[in-house]
Amino acid sequence: MAALLCTGCAAKEKEKTGKPEVNYAEKIKLLEADKAFSDLSEKGGMTKAFIDKMDDNAVLLRPDHLPVVGAYAIDYLIQINDTGFVLKWQPHNAEVSGSGDMGYTYGIYSITPSVADTQLLGTYLNVWKRQEDGTWKFVANSWNEGIGNPQ
Q: Which one of 95, 97, 118, 143 is separated from 22 by 20 to 30 angstroms, measured CA to CA?
């Protein structure tokens, strides 16, 4: 009965505003999944994290490179020596589809080389797909170097 009432409320909200009601609980879960992805990268290395959190058909979009898809993305990642830097990021926002099966996150990443006293910053976008077991895996990942003067 409660589910019917909630469904009715969401429909009425959409009727009033023309927009579906935001499911904040799902949005928070997706932000948490992206943050856990970053934590895995920071602690276990970028390659391990990306392979672990990547959907089988994921697409990597990299500068000066054609899209890298699925098994080729794993091959691409394995060739990267990630022992000389730490990659981590902070998600700034997430959105989840009304059906709850797709979403995206974006934010700012940092790469800290182990041999230099510097930090490289940029922006990123992850597109996520909910798996049958309820977990999230990314289906697309893209990034842009540099963000100018962050404020």
A: 143
